Amino acid sequence: MRKFRLGEGFREEPQIEEEGEEEADEEEEQDEEEVRNEITSLIEALEEQSEEEELAVEEDTCPSVAEYTDNCAYVRELGMSLDEEALELCNRHQLCYTCGAYHNMNAVICDRGFLNEADRLCRGDATCKDEAAGLFFFMLRDRVFTDIQSTGFACAAKCTFEFITGISGA
């Protein structure tokens, strides 16, 4: 141990430690190391959880989309492959049929919304329009419009309306 004394500066003092003090110091160092390891583990776990939450938010922020859409399982089971735009349109139509009544929509509005958006995306391409019409036909075979009394709680979310209408990527 070093001590400072006026006029003498720092000087070494003889260290006299007892055996019990050395053991206590070692135990204290081990305890500190364990605490550091636990803190490091907690920080890593929190960072991992935060990353997972960010991915979840990026993937899907609207609970009704996750709850009431199935990525057009029926159509895909029939062997149709869907690109990203067709899949989103199909999901929007499915959510419109499930939650549209809550937002003052009916089946005709949902159907027109799908057909108008498909027409816009196809930009005059006849093959694209034919494929959209085929998708629409198969979707209708699997859909039943849900009345307002049967809509779920998640339908009330603002993001549901935004997803159906394409206002945002919800």
From TrEMBL:
Transmembrane segments annotated in the record for this chain: none
Superkingdom: Eukaryota
Biased composition (Acidic residues): 15-35
An example molecular function term from Gene Ontology annotations: phospholipase A2 activity
GO biological process: arachidonate secretion; phospholipid metabolic process
InterPro entries xref list: PLA2_conodipine-like (IPR038875), PLipase_A2_dom_sf (IPR036444)
Region (Disordered): 1-36
Biased composition (Basic and acidic residues): 1-14
PANTHER family to which the protein is assigned, alphabetical: AGAP006772-PA (PTHR37687:SF1)
Protein name as catalogued: Uncharacterized protein
Source organism: Capitella teleta
